[in-house]
Design goal:
seven-stranded mixed β-sheet; 434 residues; alpha/beta; 25% helix
């Protein structure tokens, strides 16, 4: 396992000063997708893709799941091979960090002193894990964001090892499920009273907890760490405010992320827990765009804006931003959708909801569950556990608006397939038209 290294890419040689039509800062999934869209939109533009990792762009969802179990599969998670960028004349500047930016001069400076000028700039700077200060300086504490992070954590997941997971969010639960399947003894410590309580209804949160406990994972909610240290053997000791103490060989922290907006702030862009953009990916200054989870973008069907850390945003919102930056405006207008694979449990969600949503639960048994969110007389969102077929149908029911709401009294009847409800909604719509 120690022989596996993050993939290496080839940087584009630059002179001391270089100019490009389009410069994309951030060579993750979103930046890569923006570059791809920019090339499709403008076959003649000069494009540079700058990233601070030495890897070719890769997708991050496998880092908390398959890559932990199979580190040697790292190369399969690259988005493209090196020839892809050469064939499309996308210049890669890898292992490089932007240290200063000037929106008036349209100029960036890299850490090694090289200067790059641009006509259009796309910021795809992503996010970074929130750190837990109590654990700073302690050994065998892991955060998961990069391929290197995943490989370091994977080396610790040996059968019988005691792993502590601080944070019962999606990343923490995905890591916990993977580690348990690898034979580790896993304890999840969540400060809130329930798992994922800020984003999921109570019925789903409880079902997720029961699933993980059935896999042998100890789930401790209401666990607020008061102190942390090491014992005489170098093991990590975490103590809660209630006096509960756990000892671990390793700990992984997953308590959320914060967007990397420092470069945007230096450029003078509007920032509000993310770079504020419109549906075309345009930021608040001419010639500057933003892509991926660093953005706060309009949310269709819900009104307002949000920052989402979804694969969908890195794939589709970033494509719209890259195309717009290249002179072919493209609008991102998709309904929010995401998934989380936690061992044998697959959660999917579509749409939006708030804390005052009313939920209709469809329990199909054997761990299969769908819950539908109603607000102000409309279906606005859905969450499924191991029942992915309901997601696409729910999306169409949400789009149907008031027509779907007329059937709300049937939403909780698991004996009536959602597909049948959709059929009835469409039939009613046709009758209204005729």
């Amino acid at each position: 396992m120690s022989a596996v290294r993050p993939c290496e890419g080839a940087s584009l040689p630059l002179s001391s000063a270089e100019r490009f039509d389009i410069v994309i800062v951030g060579a993750g999934h979103a930046g890569d997708r923006a570059a791809e869209a920019a090339r499709l939109a403008n076959p003649h533009a000069s494009i540079a893709l700058i990233g601070d990792e030495s890897c070719l762009p890769y997708e991050r969802p496998p880092l908390s799941k398959g890559l932990l179990a199979h580190p040697a599969a790292l190369l399969t998670h690259r988005r493209h091979d090196p020839a892809f960028y050469g064939d499309r004349r996308i210049g890669l500047v890898l292992g490089s960090r932007v240290v200063s930016a000037d929106a008036t001069q349209r100029r960036l400076v890299l850490a090694d002193g090289r200067a790059i000028s641009y006509d259009a700039l796309v910021l795809a700077t992503g996010s970074r894990p929130r750190r837990l200060a109590l654990l700073d300086g302690l050994p065998n504490v892991h955060y998961l964001r990069t391929a290197a992070d995943a490989l370091a954590l994977a080396a610790c997941l040996r059968p019988g090892e005691r792993l502590g997971v601080v944070g019962g969010g999606f990343i923490g639960l995905e890591v916990a499920a993977t580690a348990a399947r690898l034979g580790c003894s896993v304890t999840v410590m969540e400060q809130a009273p329930v798992l994922l309580g800020r984003v999921l209804p109570a019925a789903v949160s409880e079902a997720i907890r029961k699933f993980h406990e059935a896999q042998g994972i100890s789930v401790r909610t209401g666990f607020e760490i008061e102190s942390a240290g090491t014992d005489s053997q170098g093991a990590l000791r975490l103590r809660s405010r209630e006096g509960e103490t756990h000892v671990f060989a390793s700990v992984v922290v997953g308590i959320g992320v914060q967007p990397n907006v420092e470069l945007a702030q230096a450029l003078g862009l509007d920032v509000d827990d993310g770079i504020v953009v419109d549906a075309f990916g345009r930021a608040s200054l001419p010639g500057i765009y933003a892509a991926g989870e660093v953005t706060r973008h309009p949310v269709p069907h819900a009104g307002g804006t949000a920052r989402h850390e979804f694969w969908q945003i890195a794939e589709h919102q970033a494509f719209a931003a890259g195309s717009s930056a290249a002179g072919r405006p493209a609008e991102f207008g998709e309904m929010p959708w995401f998934w989380s694979d936690q061992g044998e449990l697959k959660l999917q969600s579509v749409g939006t909801w708030s804390a005052d949503a009313a939920w209709a639960m469809r329990d199909y048994g054997r761990g299969r569950l769908t819950v539908l969110a109603m607000q102000e007389g409309r279906l606005t969102g859905a969450v499924t556990l191991n029942e992915g077929r309901d997601i696409s149908i729910s999306k169409r029911l949400i789009a149907a608006g008031a027509a779907a709401a007329a059937h709300a009294h049937r939403f909780a009847d698991a004996a009536v397939p959602l597909a049948a409800l959709l059929k009835d909604v469409r039939a009613a719509a046709m009758e209204t038209v005729t």
